[in-house]
Write a structure and sequence with these properties.
By secondary structure, the chain is an alpha+beta fold. Helix content is 49%, strand content 14%. It has two domains: 255 residues, no CATH class; 157 residues, no CATH class. A hairpin with a 5-residue loop joins β11 and β12. This is DUF2252 domain-containing protein.
Length: 466
């Protein structure tokens, strides 16, 4: 057994004990780690400078893109939070740990959830970003998710009472659904998913329901690759090319392009080796036509990310997205080390562990500079949350949905009976998480102000408005 699995095996699942015994064991853990301790947040005297953590996390990124990263992060405390997973990981390491470990998302905030199509073309709601996935204390994901609602709520100018309510609903929904999963078999949990259309239908706001139903219809109407092909490409002789949209989408220089394409072709062959045989057969019918750098997200800006265009002999396109896979921000804050030497493999396996259904082209590779990458389809019928239109009721509904999705994801690799036993059936744990979330929202605002000061002092470069 690897050191990583040895460290956490006792808290993942005990196949010998009954559900009731494991629930009771979770209850017993409260005597050592009371639920009330999870409401606490106070920075330690030796807390690291958040700006230094940001600078450290930028090492190895594309320097010309760093000003875009900091420009995006300075838009609001919520944007800062999205790009500062490393800061919160270091802070969570200073909080009380229940000792119950499972596979974590690692960057569990509300914008990393949404709808997407499964390989069977069903639209589901789930977590959709796993760059930082790593085994660790289950409550770390929950605290980051609940805090993201408090922080986003402030950004949207909701009252402090409502922001606390959003965070509380995340934890309460997690509790209720984890208890439900604790009654199921491991196989039933593995089969479970959250139907996006049914989830939207559960809402009471008719206007928002109609808005999302139209989005689902639009997402389902087109083959995603053909839609992107019409929008993102042009014809250059016999070759289809990705349109440049600098600084967010661009090709290497003319001098570099031929070399880059050769490296990409080699990396693509290695990527194919990470796929099951039937997917190799499918992708073997497509040839690599073009590659471009594409700036994505907030936390990923500056890492080597991009898109590749594959074409079949009869002109059908497939767009794949590649993202650089760096060491998880959680690893340096936990005692155990990753069992995976390839960071792309770490992400792919973590994603398959947590998601109800993963992209059928999900795989990993590396380049000639030994940078790690993972690869998936680009925008396969994705439906992202639109916070700007959400009212209080909608935010609460979305908080409940995210708490549900996180419980389902955690139940796959962890022991839902043990976790449920620890949480209990009352409100004490949700109350604690809600209090923590407001305290951490205060901390996030203070860190955001420190970043703005560092920008003014020239310690962090920013791009012009884009």
């Amino acid at each position: 057994m690897t050191n990583e699995l040895k460290d956490i095996s006792d808290t993942i699942f005990d196949p010998v004990s009954s559900k009731a015994e494991r629930f009771a064991k979770g209850n017993e853990i409260r005597k050592k780690i009371p639920r009330s301790v999870h409401q606490e947040w106070k920075p330690s005297e030796n807390r690291r400078d958040p700006v230094e953590i940001l600078i450290e996390s930028s090492v190895g990124r594309i320097e010309t893109l760093l000003p875009i990263r900091y420009r995006r992060m300075m838009e609001s405390p919520f944007a800062f939070f999205r790009g500062s997973a490393a800061i919160m990981a270091a802070d969570l390491a200073e909080t009380s740990d229940s000792g119950i470990h499972l596979q974590l998302c690692g960057d569990c905030h509300l914008m990393n959830f949404g709808g997407f199509a499964t390989p069977e073309r069903k639209l589901v709601f789930d977590i959709n970003d796993f760059d930082e996935t790593f085994p660790g204390p289950w409550e770390w994901d929950l605290k980051r998710l609940a805090s993201s609602f408090a922080i986003a709520g402030r950004w949207r100018n909701f009252s402090e009472k409502h922001c606390k309510e959003f965070a509380w609903n995340v934890a309460d929904s997690y509790k209720r659904h984890m208890l439900d999963y604790s009654q199921l078999s491991a196989l039933q949990i593995w089969y479970a998913d959250i139907d996006l259309a049914a989830l939207i239908e559960m809402g009471k706001d008719e206007e928002i329901k109609k808005f999302h139903q139209k989005r689902i219809k639009k997402a389902s109407e087109f083959t995603a690759h053909e839609k992107e092909f019409a929008k993102m490409t042009y014809q250059e002789g016999q070759r289809a090319r990705i349109k440049d949209d600098p600084p967010l989408i661009y090709h290497p220089t003319v001098r570099e392009e031929e070399v880059v394409l050769k490296v990409a072709e080699k990396a693509h062959i290695q990527y194919m080796e990470s796929l099951p045989d039937e997917k190799k057969v499918l992708l073997s019918r497509y040839k690599l036509h073009d590659i471009a750098i594409k700036v994505v997200g907030v936390g990923s800006v500056g890492t080597m990310c991009g898109i590749t265009l594959l074409m079949s002999a009869t002109g059908e396109p497939i767009f794949l997205q590649f993202k650089e896979a760096r060491k998880s921000v959680l690893e340096s804050n936990l005692k155990h080390k990753s069992k995976y030497k390839h960071q792309g493999e770490r992400i792919v396996i973590g994603q398959k562990l947590m998601q109800s259904a993963s992209d059928m082209f999900l795989g990993w590779t590396n380049d000639d500079q030994n940078r790690f990458f993972y690869i998936r389809q680009l925008r396969d019928a994705k439906v992202k949350p639109v916070l700007e239109i959400m009212k209080t009721e909608n935010m609460n509904d979305y908080a409940k949905a995210c708490g549900w999705a996180l419980a389902r994801a955690h139940a796959r690799s962890g022991d839902p009976s043990l976790v449920s036993g620890y949480i209990g059936k009352g409100d004490e744990f949700a109350d604690a998480i809600a209090k923590f979330s407001l305290l951490y929202a205060d901390q996030n605002e203070a860190d955001y102000d420190k970043m703005l000061t560092a920008i003014k002092e020239g310690r962090l470069p920013i791009a012009a408005e884009i």
